[in-house]
Amino acid sequence: MANSTITNFHIPRWSELPNLDLYLDQTVTILEKYLKDYIGNKDETIITKTMINNYVKQGLIKPPKKKKYSKVHIATLFVICILKQIYSINDISELMKLAIKTARFTKAYDEFCSALEKAILYTFNGIEYSIPKDISFEESLLTSVAQSFANKLYVEKTFLHK
């Protein structure tokens, strides 16, 4: 994959997510559409219906209403799909709890997207991505989480050619 494709990595912000609740198949489709070029091998499935059902059972996401998944579900699943590449489900749960304890869900989600895109852009362009000294612990942690995914993606795409 060309670096230009990677540096154009984009996760839909809160305002870009569907305003209508989606069925499980539609939810899987939207996640695959945005993430398939960046996570795992091309032949790998990023998320399945079974995985989503397990996340509900584990309490990572709330049960769907009338078998439909809301914007909150979809945003949470984007975060889970990305972070499960480097963290355990328990770790992801703890990171998400901290994020929504310190900011509104929509703000926390958009900040996650921005931090991740910035980390990927910087990493693939060889720009140092340092953590500013004057930010909160939570902002520093978010920066570190984003950078850890960007580093993993960089190794996979430039060396391992996944």
What's this model, at a glance?
It contains 7 helices and 2 strands; from the N terminus they run αβααβαααα. The protein is mainly alpha-helical and 162 residues long. The protein is globular and about 45 Å long.
How many individual β-strands? 2
Helix share of residues?
55-70%
**Major sheet details:** 2 strands, antiparallel
What does the overall shape look like?
Answer: globular
Structure annotation, total helices? 7
Separation, N- and C-terminal Cα atoms: 9 Å
N-to-C SSE string, H for helix and E for strand: HEHHEHHHH
Mean pLDDT: 90
Derived from helix and strand composition plus strand pairing, the structural class reads: mainly alpha
Point out poorly predicted stretches.
none
| Spatial strand arrangement across the major sheet | 1-2
Q: What is Rg?
A: 15 Å
Strand content is under 5%
